[in-house]
Amino acid sequence: MAGIYVHVPFCRKACHYCNFHFSTSIKYLNDFVAGLIKEIDLQKHYLNQPVTTLYFGGGTPSLLPSESLEAILNAIYVNFDTSSLQEVTLEANPDDITPEKLLSWKQLGINRLSIGVQSFFNEDLLWMNRAHNVDQAIDSIHLAKQHGFDNLTIDLIYGTPTLSDEAWQKNLQTAMDLRINHLSCYALTVEPKTALDTMINQRKIEGVDPEKQARHFDMLQQFASSAGYEQYEISNFAKHGFRSRHNSSYWLGVPYLGLGPSAHSFNGISRQWNVANNALYIQNINNQVLPFEIEILTPEQRLNEYIMTSLRTSEGVNLFSISEHFGIVHMQAVMKAATPHLTNETVQLNGNFLQLTARGKFLADGIASDLFQL
After folding, report:
1. Staple 104 to which of 66, 272, 287, 302, CB 3.0 to 4.6 Å?
2. How far apart are CA 161 and CA 213, in angstroms?
3. Is the pLDDT of residue 374 over 90?
C-alpha cells in the first residue's frame, strides 16, 4: 500500500503561527493546477504499489474550485493504481464550507474532511489571525454532517496565551458534544520566521508558557480517556474505527508521494522534497523538470526515522522489527538507551514494544533523540 499527498499552497489569510509553504495570492492558482497535473504524469512511476490513501493538504485545499479538484483527481486515477483506495481526505477551512462545495466533494469521492477549527473561542481565533469565527466553525460541522460526512476530524490548538484552562476544557467538551469522531490537538509551537515569532521577539504579545502547555496536554489525555477517544498518536485521538489511515501510514513507514510545491516524498530508501516556491515549481514543471532535492537515507537514518515516528504511536517501537531489519546489535543499543526512561517510567516495555507512558508522551521528542543511533 502507498499514499499520495497533494499540497495546495494557497490561503485567504496568513495565520500567525503557520510555517507551512503557502501564498495569500491566488495569482498562480490556475497555473499551479496545470503544473500539478503535469507533475502527476511525470511522477507516475514513483510508487510501484496500489495507492490506498489520498490527502489534500496545504495551505487551504478547500479554496480549489470543484473543476480543478476534479481534474487533479482524474489525473491521479489515470496515472496510479487506485483500485484499493480507501480514504480521500480534504483539509477545509470553516469559511469555505458551503452546501454546494460539500455536494461537489461528495460526488468527487472525498470521504473524509479535516476542518481547521483551532478553537471555539473568537478571542483565540483573532489572536491566531484565522479567517473564520466560532459560529462558522460550528455551522460548518453541522453542514458537513448533514451532507453525509461522518468521517470528520478537527484541529485544535492548546497552550496559547489567550486560552485558559477552563476554555480548553470547553473546547474539548464542544468537540465531544458535536460528536466529532477524530481530533488532532497540537501544542502551540513558535516556529522561526513566522509572524508569531516576530511578535514575541518584539514583545508585542506574550510568549508560550511551557507549564500551561503541559497542563493542557494532561487535561487532553484525561478527557480523551473519559470520552472514549483512543490516543493512537501523541497528537491524534480517534473513536473506534476512525483513525486516520493516511497519517497512520506515515508513522508506519509506508511509502508516499508528495505532489505540489514543498511536498515531501518517501520510498523507504530516500526522501525528496519539492521546491517551496510556486513560480519556480510551475516554471520547472512546464519544462518537464521535477523540481526536487533528494537525500539517500543511511541505515541509521532509516532506523532513527522509524524510532521517531513509531514511538509517537500507541503501538510503540517494535524491537523485533528493529532486530529483523537493522540487526540485533542496533536492537540491543536501543534497549540500552531506553533503560533510564524505563526506570523513571516515561517508557514501558510491553512484550516486544517500547511504548511511551502518559507522562512520557509530553517528552516524546527528547526520548526519541536519546534512542537514536548515530
Report:
1. 66
2. 10
3. no
Separation of alpha carbons 170 and 121, rounded Å: 9
The residues pairing with 294 across neighbouring beta strands, listed in sequence order, are 272
Residue type, 70: E
Contacts from 212-218 at CB under 8 Å and sequence distance 24+? 212/159, 212/165, 213/158, 213/159, 213/187, 213/188, 214/362, 215/165, 216/158, 216/159, 216/163, 216/165, 216/168, 216/187, 217/158, 217/159, 217/187, 217/361, 217/362, 218/362
Domains by residue range for the chain, with CATH: 2-251 (3.80.30.20), 299-371 (1.10.10.920)
Provide the residue type at 374 as one letter.
Answer: L
Answer yes or no: are the C-beta atoms of 258 and 273 closer than 8 Å. Answer: yes
User: Phi/psi class of residue 133: alpha, beta or left (left: φ > 0; alpha: ψ in -120 to 50)?
Assistant: beta
Q: What is the pLDDT of residue 102?
A: 98
Q: pLDDT class for 41, splitting at 50, 70, 90?
A: very high
- Per residue in 259-290, pLDDT (tens digit) is 999 999 999 999 999 999 999 999 999 999 99
- Closest listed residue to residue 76, CA positions, set 109, 114, 100: 109
Element spanning 186, H or E: strand 182-187
